[in-house]
Amino acid sequence: MQERLIANSVVSDRFFWNGTPCWEWIGKYVYSNRGLAYGQLNVRIKSGPRKGKVRSERAHRVALRAFKGRYLGKRYVGGHSCNISWCINPDHLVGGTQQANVRKTVREGRHRNQYNPQNAQPLLEAAFDGYVGLKDHVAYYGDLYHAAN
User: Fold this and answer.
1) I need a labelling partner for 63 at 20 to 30 A (CA). Which of 70, 88, 93, 125 fits?
2) How distant, in Å, are the alpha carbons of 21, 25, 149 from that of 4?
3) Three-state SS letters, 5-23
4) Residue 145 — pLDDT band, cuts 50, 70, 90?
């Protein structure tokens, strides 16, 4: 699985966290309800009553399991320390609860709700020099996913 994750990512020359580059996912994407793009891949179930069936999983959750041996149950989320939703570098990923993840976004000033309706987009654009969305990602790297398939 590690080889598959590495083959579907590129080492970023633009995004870094703690001196290490992000691994940008170039495979299939799904969008969250906030419009963030997350990598997605199909994984075959190895045991249990659904053995042999295929299910879709978020790439960063698979990366946590493949590289760190950290299985995330249904109640846990995979957080990005680098704040790049399509990053799958295991050094940038942490497992935790949704509550801890939301507290981190509030602390960093990126959380939006009815009491704090300011858009996080200007903060992200300032931090990443205007390069934040999946459209920009595709424009920068080209549509590598559809070109390969």
Assistant:
1) 125
2) 19, 11, 15
3) HHHCEEEEEEEEECCEEEE
4) very low
